[in-house]
């Protein structure tokens, strides 16, 4: 029976954030070894769950090593990166002889002093396992893929959906490839191509054109000459590193020329749609006026500048201030504010509180003056059974409280930064999102797997913050130039 080592280290690092991600962030998010990896991820709609599913189907032995995950935020401290890398390498060494290695990476991890944290991790793993042992890796659709990541692995298999609802399926594909490689049925070989463009987050959605057709086209690629898999990754624009931007990857059975040809073809297709890969959402005042004018509720107001899944602060008050200013009622906003939660806990359910909430990390609007009744106190834990962006089953938003203000407006205060990927964030508290009139979600696209089915209206808002949606708002120093939309098109040519 083939033995395949399984592990991973996943972080999406926003290099514009000043906060740093330390070991405690992974201990809080998830840092499992041995059987703990199956306990945490085995049943989840996550690629690691797909690894186990592939093992059950193909009959290979999973040798669990180390799996680390933390909420997107600023880069890792160099100490955390070194420690986690060392632990993973030790666990791989302790796994004994294996026929292949299967890893789950995000692909947009940055550490202090190490812009290509995923590439360097793979180089260390390759150095440990030698040049001939298959190393198969899954990546998030937002990975910023570097040449090192491609050269140090045999196959990079990325999600093909945003919101990411195919994580388990792509993990299973990667597991199947690893098993076929481990049993010498194939020799996965890959190539990549990177068109010189940054794709607006909203244009990255895979149910919108042109990404929908580009991704759908992957299914119809000719499989007759050894083609095995292909990915189009949108990239993560909130990272100022050389690899930032989209990537097209093709994996073949020992046919590098074919892999290059397919990757370049995909890259040319993406480039040909470059003028559609942008968006111009309204600013807060306009968006809230539009929200108040519709009776198709609930209205989901999408706070693009405070997209928690992209590493933002999670406490921006820009939209709730605007909603209250324009007289909104029956609204729900979630703000990260552990101090405010403690104040609510002291007051108890039914107690009245007067406090300042949010606006403490994100300073684009002042803290919100909250005067109202503590309606709910909760431990913040809930389970999501359905496929949702990120694939997290056992969720934790930390101790949480709900304060009801005048006009039936509700402020949900959490003790952990927690993205709106599941309705469980609200329903576990006893709130009914369907009956609210306005809900602010701090996201870009990922929330849709949960919220689109209940939304009356969706309004995306060009708010300020660490994930402001227009790349032109950022000062980049390390990305490749020239690149669209930062440089004029006659200067930027398709490098494919
Ligand atoms: Zn992603």
UniProtKB/TrEMBL annotation:
Coiled coil: none annotated. Residues 301-478 form the Microcystin LR degradation protein MlrC C-terminal domain. It holds the Pfam family DUF1485. Residues 3-291 form the Microcystin LR degradation protein MlrC N-terminal domain. This is M81 family metallopeptidase. It comes from Singulisphaera sp. Ch08.
């Amino acid at each position: 029976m083939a033995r395949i080592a399984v592990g991973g280290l996943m972080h999406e690092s926003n290099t514009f954030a000043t906060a740093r991600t330390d070991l405690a962030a992974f201990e809080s998010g998830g840092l499992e070894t041995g059987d703990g990896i199956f306990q945490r991820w085995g049943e989840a709609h996550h690629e690691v769950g797909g690894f186990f599913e592939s093992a059950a189907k193909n009959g290979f032995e999973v040798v669990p090593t180390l799996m680390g995950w933390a909420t997107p935020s600023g880069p890792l401290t160099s100490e955390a990166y070194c420690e986690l890398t060392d632990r993973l390498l030790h666990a791989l060494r302790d796994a004994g002889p294996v026929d292949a290695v299967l890893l789950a990476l995000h692909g947009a991890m940055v550490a202090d002093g190490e812009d290509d944290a995923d590439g360097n991790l793979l180089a260390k793993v390759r150095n440990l396992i030698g040049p001939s042992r298959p190393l198969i890796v899954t990546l998030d659709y937002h990975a910023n893929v570097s040449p090192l990541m491609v050269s140090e692995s045999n196959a990079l298999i990325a999600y093909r959906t945003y919101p990411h609802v195919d994580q388990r399926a792509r993990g299973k594909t990667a597991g199947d490839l690893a098993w076929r490689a481990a049993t010498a049925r194939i020799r996965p070989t890959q190539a990549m191509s990177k068109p010189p463009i940054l794709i607006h987050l909203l244009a990255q959605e895979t149910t919108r054109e042109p990404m929908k057709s580009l991704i759908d086209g992957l299914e119809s690629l000719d499989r007759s000459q050894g083609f095995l898999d292909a990915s189009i990754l949108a990239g993560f624009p909130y990272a100022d590193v050389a690899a930032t931007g989209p990537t097209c990857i093709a994996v073949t059975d020992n046919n590098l020329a074919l892999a290059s040809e397919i990757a370049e073809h995909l890259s040319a297709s993406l480039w040909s749609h470059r003028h559609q890969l942008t968006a111009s959402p309204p600013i807060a005042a306009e968006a809230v006026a539009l929200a108040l004018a519709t009776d198709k509720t609930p209205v989901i107001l999408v706070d693009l500048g405070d997209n928690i899944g992209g590493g933002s602060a999670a406490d921006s008050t820009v939209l709730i201030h605007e909603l209250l200013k324009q007289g909104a009622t029956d609204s729900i906003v979630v703000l990260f504010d552990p101090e405010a939660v403690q104040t609510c806990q002291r007051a108890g359910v039914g107690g009245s509180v007067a406090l300042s909430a949010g606006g403490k990390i994100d300073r684009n609007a002042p803290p919100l003056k909250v005067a109202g009744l503590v309606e709910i106190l909760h431990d913040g834990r809930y389970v999501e059974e359905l496929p949702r962006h990120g694939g997290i089953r056992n969720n934790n938003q930390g101790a949480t409280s709900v304060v009801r203000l005048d006009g039936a407006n509700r402020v949900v205060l959490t003790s952990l930064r927690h993205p709106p990927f599941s309705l469980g964030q609200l329903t576990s508290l006893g709130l009914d999102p369907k009956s609210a009139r306005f809900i602010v979600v701090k996201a870009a696209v990922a929330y849709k797997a949960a919220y689109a089915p209940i939304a009356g209206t969706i309004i995306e808002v060009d708010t300020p913050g660490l994930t402001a949606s227009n790349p032109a708002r950022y000062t980049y120093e390390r990305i490749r130039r020239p690149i669209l939309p930062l440089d004029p098109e006659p200067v930027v040519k398709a490098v494919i």
